[in-house]
Design goal:
By secondary structure, the chain is mostly beta strands. It has a single domain (3-106), classed as HesB-like domain (Hypothetical Protein Aq_1857, Chain: A, Sandwich). It has helices at residues 6-17, 69-72; strands spanning 3-4, 25-33, 37-45, 53-57, 60-64, 76-82, 85-91, 97-98, 104-106. Strand 4 and strand 5 form a beta hairpin. The longest helix is centred in the first third of the chain and has 12 residues, at 6-17. 21% of the residues are buried.
Length: 107
């Protein structure tokens, strides 16, 4: 299971509301790359793929593909808005290490 904080849910809802109308949820995907080996990817999507796990937080839907799910299972995703900038912050128990920017990790 992946957990979104209230702040993250509000941010995703705001992004979906401000999109062109086709977006129905947030895709979370892990791919190779970044300075630590794997990187987090987030994008708005119109629908889930048949093999996706779909997690619903009220009106907000999160789509996770079967390859990415084990790598972020148990993770908490927050949305931080500070003087240094704003963005999603991952707290991932599966990450053995993470880069200083927090956008990539090693498993």
């Amino acid at each position: 299971m992946v957990t979104l904080t209230d702040s993250a849910i509000k941010a995703v809802n705001r992004f979906i509301s401000g999109s062109d109308g086709a977006a129905q949820g947030l895709r979370i995907q892990i791919s190779g790359g970044g300075c630590s080996g794997f990187q987090y990817g987030l994008k708005l999507e119109a629908a889930a793929e048949p093999e996706d796990t779909v997690i619903e937080y009220g009106e907000v839907k999160v789509f996770i593909d079967p390859t990415s799910l084990p790598m972020i299972s148990g993770a908490t995703i927050d949305f931080v808005d500070s003087l240094e900038g704003s963005g999603f912050k991952f707290t991932n128990p599966n990450a053995k290490s993470a880069c200083s920017c927090g956008s990539s990790f090693s498993a």
